[in-house]
Amino acid sequence: MKEQYSIEKSIGFIIYRSALKMKSTLQRILKDRGFDITPEQWGILRVLREEEGISQKEIGDRLFKDKPNVTRMLDVLERKGLIFRQPTDRRRYSIFLTKEGKKLQEELLPIVLQVQETATNSLTKSDLATLQNLLNIIYGNL
What is the pTM of this model? Predict the structure, then answer.
């Protein structure tokens, strides 16, 4: 007897599988092109390019990452000379891109956009807008 529920038809599984594939594809391309940066670290660089001087908590909130993961990634990015932390009070730091961080973010943006383009190349603009809307509705429902 065939099961009525198939994991391959699960919306959650399809979303998860697609996200993993996009992440692993980006990671492979970055590595192949000689960039020593992960997709997660890229996310931080991009968030900071959009708004520098935000806190670690704000970065975590925007990327849906917990404090220990954000701290670890910021430590790595700081060691690489891509960001710096500036204290704003005794417990809070504002995070900024260094000149090197800004340059790297600009170099990586076309690569990231190309991966996104490849992933969505058979979708029309209307399809893509619908997909974004539907995924946001699913997120909002939960």
Answer: 0.88
With left for phi above 0 and alpha for psi between -120 and 50, is residue 34 left, alpha or beta? left
Q: Is residue 1 part of a domain?
A: no
3-state secondary structure of 95: strand
Degrees, nearest 5: CA angle 72-53-114: 70
**Contact (CB, 8 A) for 96 and 53:** yes
Q: What amino acid is encoded at 36 in this protein?
A: D
Q: What is the mean pLDDT of residues 109-114?
A: 97
Domain range enclosing 50 = 7-141
- The closest of 112, 99, 100 to 38, measured between CA atoms, is 112
The answer to whether residue 2 sits within a structural domain is no
* Structure confidence by residue, pLDDT tens digits, 27-74: 999 999 999 999 999 999 999 999 999 999 999 999 999 999 999 999
Give the CATH number, domain containing residue 105: 1.10.10.10
